[in-house]
Amino acid sequence: MSNWPPPIVRHADDALAAMRALTCVTSSGAIPPPVVGHVLHRLALHAGSLDLVLVQLGVGLVDSLSAYEVFEDDGAEPLTNITRGAMLIADAAERASLLSTDLLGARAAIENQGFRTRPAAGRPPVFPPPDKPHGPTR
Questions:
Q1: Are the C-beta atoms of 110 and 33 separated by less than 8 Å?
Q2: Closest CA to 25 of 125, 130, 118
Q3: What whole-number distance in Å separates Cα of residue 89 and Cα of residue 72?
Q4: Would you tell me which of 51, 52, 57, 136 could form a disulfide with 96, CB atoms 3.0–4.6 Å apart?
Q5: Residue 96: which of 44, 33, 60 has the closest Cα?
Q6: Whether this model's pTM surpasses 0.85
């Protein structure tokens, strides 16, 4: 079994594949509010996890200077680019945290909505329609 790519890269590849699948399934058709709400909740959890992953990647990047013989292709000192990279990663982690908050806010805005099917007029639903209303009862 090959050591490349390491598990950390394989997991990132799996996350990318999952996002591509979501892109495909959301590209056409109506999506009712309760379904959107569930997806938003899960994406908010992913954004929160992304925040932590990014923080840990930044720390790991800086720690690589003492654990490995890190070098630049042109012979320059790697500390400058490692520091810059770590700072940009920290900025991205902050944005991921804000994204999680925004996604949870969007979910809260639609969490009391339900839906019923009606005769199709244009675009088909993304998933099979239910036999009865879904969402909060009034």
A1: yes
A2: 125
A3: 19
A4: 51
A5: 44
A6: no
Cβ-proximal residues to 115 (8 Å cutoff; 6+ apart), any chain: 32, 33, 34, 133, 134, 135
| Structure confidence by residue, pLDDT tens digits, 8-61 | 999 999 999 999 999 999 988 889 999 999 999 999 999 999 999 999 999 999
Of 109, 96, 107, nearest to 15 (Cα)? Answer: 96
pLDDT tens-digit map of 38-53: 999 999 999 999 999 9
| Residue 82: alpha-carbon gap to chain centroid | 25
* Calpha distance 104→44 (Å, rounded): 6
Alpha carbon distances (Å) from 58 to 67, 90, 103, 111, 127: 14, 7, 24, 35, 40
